[in-house]
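Just curious: can you write a single protein's sequence together with how it folds?
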Amino acid sequence: MALYMDTHKKMEGLTAEALARAHKRDLEVQGKYGVNYLKYWYNEGAGTVFCLCEAPSTEAASAVHREAHGLVADEIIEVKEGS
């Protein structure tokens, strides 16, 4: 399975608590699409979030966010792990 990083930009009112709830929903929905959300990073002040997942496609990764909470990424790119 491919590894993808998505970016959410300018998320108004972003808080750590709200993001944790959204990630929890991703984890509840991901199996339906064959996706495994691994980790996320965020900057509250900038309203920016990055999510890392294993997925069969960008469409599957996006479908999880759409169903789980509606916070669809601005961009999803395939990435490779380095050291």
Observations:
- Residues 29 and 64 are 6 Å apart (CA to CA).
- The mean pLDDT is 96.
- Residues 16-29 form the longest helix (14 residues).
- The chain has one domain: 2-79.
